[in-house]
Amino acid sequence: MQLQFDKTPVNDFCELVNQYPIGELRKPTRSTVPLLSFWRDTNVHFAWLLKNWNYAPAAGDKACFEFTVSSARSDNRPSHTDLMFISETLAVAVEGKWSEPRYPEVKDWLNESKYSNTHKVLEHWLGLIGRKTNQSLPSPSFGGIVYQMLHRTASVCSLPAPAVHVVYHCFGLDHKKAKSYAADLSALNSLLGKPANLRFFLLTTPLSKTEMFYLLEEEVGDLRRVDEADAAEEKVRTRLKQGGLFEFGDSKIVAM
Fold it and tell me: Are 144 and 105 in contact (CB under 8 A)?
């Protein structure tokens, strides 16, 4: 499988980590850290994921980290998906979650966003989804949907693969948060009419922090207290490349 950072091929995991821009790995508690730690074994985990859907890995498959899809206007920030698997027959958007809170709903994002063209952006997202699922999607119906979830769905729907999936990959999830993510994914799936070529999944992976993680957390805290943010981030990158920050349990995937 070809590893990529967005559209740029990389030779290995260490080169991939180095591609992340300054500021993206400031703290070891960001969800990017367990996501990268887990998916460093890309071929193994992707083969397991595909087996759940009766697909098999194929030559030419790509694993694209921080995959971007253009927004409604060229001067708007593009959509960034944590990990996008791309093949001829299937595209899978993977969004990593760990400790962060729930994102705002579309109605709140429309009212609070700093951008002036949020309604056009929303129409752009819904247009991408509608073209993939062959339906017209009126924007007022989506006010109660988590806006990031809609964003990720639009991104995977922009790809030419005939089948597309959205996977929320949650680490160390408690029961309350699991129910919340499942409810949000199910709400979007139901609102779209449960299209056959667009499916939603909740992937949960138990996680335990290792001694190396706690040591890293202490080192980063010490550096940040003396305003050495860049040095702190370099610590996170180095430890990520070394591995061993977490012990992962058996993953489970549930269709919405």
Answer: yes
